[in-house]
User: Fold this.
Amino acid sequence: MKTSTRLYAWLKLITILHIGEQLIFGMQDLHKLQHMIAAYERWFGNTSTAIAVLAAVSVGLAVLAIVCILKGGSARFIAMFVLGLPTIGELHHVVETMRAGHYTPGAVTAVPSIICGVLFLQALVREYRPAKTVRVSPALQLHVAA
Assistant:
């Protein structure tokens, strides 16, 4: 199993723990998200249409990511890299905690999420870095073959 695949599995586990931490101790992020969704719904006039479009786009992006991962190669790299980027965004929990001077919900699991996310992105880059090729002169090839 590739290192990136193993780290991605750990990221998903940490994400579940992160959501659990926020559900138990409070979700300030939910209020920000609700304001963003309300602004999005105002673009449509009809809440049902807005949710249907959001669901369709979300499912479409999820299917695209799955197809890219299954295809492999650079498509897998791009999909996995994009899926790994939000883990670095969890840094906002650490910043909020430092700004507040006390614990804020999400801060405990944000730290391993950030660390694992950085390691995941590094592993991806390492796995998809082009291999260095060494050119061998024809004279040396003949010498080695003899």
Observations:
- The radius of gyration is 22 Å.
